[in-house]
Amino acid sequence: MGTEHDTAPATDIRTAFRTCPLCEAGCGLELTISNGAVTRIRGDRDDVFSKGFLCPKGSTLKQLHDDPDRVRRPLVKRNGVHEEVSWDEAWQVVAERLPAIIDQHGREAVAVYLGNPSAHSLSAMLYNRSMLQALGTKRRFSASTVDQMPRQVAAGYVFGTPVTVPVPDLDRTEYLVVLGANPYASNGSLCTAPDFPGRLEAMQARGGTLVVADPRRSRTAEQADLWLPIRPGTDGLFLAAMVTAGR
Ligand code: SF4
User: Fold this and answer.
1) Model's pTM, two decimal places?
2) Which residue ranges does the chain devote to CATH 3.40.228.10?
3) Ligand 1 atom 7: residue of nearest CA
4) What is the CA(16)–ligand 1 centre distance, in A?
5) Cα 79 to ligand 1 centre (Å)
6) Whose CA is nearest to atom 4 of ligand 1?
7) Is the pLDDT of residue 8 over 80?
8) What is the 3-state secondary structure (H, E, C) of 172-201?
9) Would you say residue 189 has pLDDT above 70?
10) Domain 170-245 maps to which CATH number in 3.90.190.20, 3.30.70.1450, 3.40.228.10, 1.10.3720.10?
C-alpha cells in the first residue's frame, strides 16, 4: 500500500517573464520553471521590443546559471590561492585592507572591474556609482573598456557625457552604412536593438540599402547591398574621401 512518501511530488510548473541582463538590447525572456528550477528559456513573443528574439547568450542563461565554475561565494586570495569565505569574512578583509592600501598608496592604487551582467542590473547600477565615488579612483574598467570605449569617449567630447551614445533608428532608416562592425555576429553592440539582423532585413525589404565597409567578408557584408572591402588601416582615408566627395 502506498504511503505519503511513495507518492511522486506534484509538479509545480509555472512561467515567468524576465529581461535578459546580458546586454543593453534587453530582450524579453519567457522562463519555464518546474519545481523551482528553470527548464526552458525562450524569447517572449509578446515583448514589444524584442518580439521573441534571443541571441545564443540569452537562450543559454540556464547553463551559465548552473555552471559549476560560476563564482557563488566571495573569494579571498591567500598565498596565491583563491579561498572561498563567508560574506562576513569577506567584508572583514575589505574593512581591514582597503583603507590601508589607500592610505599607503593613494586612491589610484585601487582598480575596479565592473563585469556583466552587473552593468545592466538596476540595483547594481544604482549603488556602483556611490561606491565608485567613495573610492575616488579613476581606474575603472569593464567590458565596455574592451569593446566600446572609443565610441563613449567620442560621445563625451561631442555630447558632453560618455553615456549619450547615438544609435541608429533602424526601424525608420533607409540607408545604413556599417563601418567595421558585424551585427550579424554581435547583434549590434550598444545599439539597443534586439534582433538587429531582422531589423536590417526589414529595412532592405522596404527598399532600404545596407552598405558595409569591412576588409573581411563578414556575415553582415554577405547580407549587404554594397560591400566595400577597404584595406586594413585605411579607415581614415576612406572617411576623408567621403567628406571630400560630399563637399
Ligand atoms: S541580444 Fe542576447 S545578450 Fe543581449 S539582451 Fe538579447 S538575448 Fe540577451
Assistant:
1) 0.77
2) 170-245
3) 58
4) 17
5) 39
6) 23
7) no
8) HCCEEEEECCCHHHHCCCCCCCCCHHHHHH
9) yes
10) 3.40.228.10
- What is the pLDDT averaged over residues 140-147? 84
> C-alpha grid cell for residue 34?
518546474
Cell numbers describing residue 140: 575603472
In short, whether 54's Cβ falls inside 6 Å of ligand 1 is yes
Q: Is 174:180 a contact under the CB 8 Å cutoff? A: no
Pocket test for ligand 1, best of 23, 44, 65 (most atoms within 8 A of CB): 23
Give the pLDDT confidence of 71-95 residue by residue, as tens digits.
999 999 999 999 999 999 999 999 9
Q: What is the dotted CATH code of the domain comprising 13-65?
A: 3.30.200.210
How many Å lie between the centroid of ligand 1 and the Cα of residue 27?
5
pLDDT at 143: 81
Question: Across residues 215-236, what is the average pLDDT?
Answer: 96
Taking the centre of ligand 1 as the mean of its atom positions, its distance from the CA of residue 170, in whole angstroms, is 17
Grid coordinates belonging to 77: 586570495
Is the CB of 194 inside a 6 Å radius of any atom of ligand 1?
yes
- pLDDT bucket at 1, cuts 50 / 70 / 90: very low
Q: Are 110 and 101 spatial neighbours (Cβ–Cβ below 8 Å)?
A: yes
Give the per-residue pLDDT at 177.
96
* Cell numbers given for 59: 537562450
The segment(s) of the chain belonging to CATH 3.30.200.210 are 13-65
Which of 175, 195, 172, 187 has its CA nearest to residue 219?
187
